[in-house]
Amino acid sequence: MAWIAIVLKLIPAVIKLMKIAEELFDDVPDSGAEKKAYVMAAIKAVVEAATGFGADDVLWGKIEKAISLLIDAVCIFLFPKDAK
User: Fold this and answer.
1) Is 61 domain-assigned?
2) Has residue 51 been placed in a domain?
3) CA-CA distance, 69 to 4, in Å (whole number)?
4) Can you give the pLDDT of all 84 residues of the chain as single tens digits?
5) According to the 3-state scheme, what is the secondary structure of 55-71?
6) 34 lies in a domain?
7) Is residue 44 part of a domain?
8) Phi and psi for 35 in degrees, rounded to 5?
């Protein structure tokens, strides 16, 4: 399966994981990096399970970049920063 197909199939899971991370880190100020790391670790585990343990670094590198950008984009819409 091409890496882009994997990323597209992961979009709903990424959004759900982002909502879970938001709840888990609700009381932690400035925890954006921790939330993102939580989501990335969970997605990596899913990818490794789906592609076989020890998925190659090239495949994960492509997926990781795309998921990172997706997380950043989704944050803008789901969790906008409070206007100050």
Assistant:
1) yes
2) yes
3) 13
4) 688 988 999 999 999 999 999 899 988 888 889 999 999 999 999 888 877 766 678 888 899 999 999 999 998 888 777 644
5) CCHHHHHHHHHHHHHHH
6) yes
7) yes
8) -60, -45
